Known about the structure:
Blueprint: H1 58-61, E1 67-70, E2 74-78, E3 87-93, H2 104-122, E4 127-134, E5 144-150, H3 161-167, H4 173-188, E6 193-194
Antiparallel strand pairs: 1-2, 1-6, 2-3, 3-5, 4-5
Amino acid sequence: MTDRFLRHLPIGERPAFSAEGMPGWEIFPFEGELTVKVLGEPKLPEPPRNGAAGRPCFICQDPGAQRIWADEHWLVRHAGGPTAVPVTVLLSPIEHHDLGDLPAARAAEIGPLMQRIERAIEALGGIGRVHQAKWGDGAEHLHLWFFGRPAGMMQLRGSCLTIWDDVLPKQDEAAWRTVLSELAANLAAEGGTAYV
């Protein structure tokens, strides 16, 4: 293994938590004895993501699934079910593109759309911050994540918010759908169509 980005990694070993690392952060959601998994070997070539190499793209197959708002080029959809945090939604282009091949006209729209979604989430009330993220390991179709952190919940700040969302109790279905409806209406107030 001679790859310059892998040489320093303890492949096949169990790394130790650094005393100055994430477990020492006040926002880290776990305490007590934790064990880091053994770091596995790289898988090259990487397996294809959804929407790549003939694998179906679930967004292209049913762009209306989980959709809460859309305009002629973009859609905002929920993550599939109730969340612990007030709101989690994803922004995607309607056409199948990843960030690297997004047409210039669509790329120029991302910043204003991110601002618009943040304002719409904050307008729900009770939101301390709105976090955004881009991961793309599961699907080739571009999807930007937006998470509303509940106001005052300082322990849920930062990059551990998504872990907290996994371990905390979820909102009931009716409350979650009400939040999505309010968010869709907030987005549609500036154009596009609300779908919930």
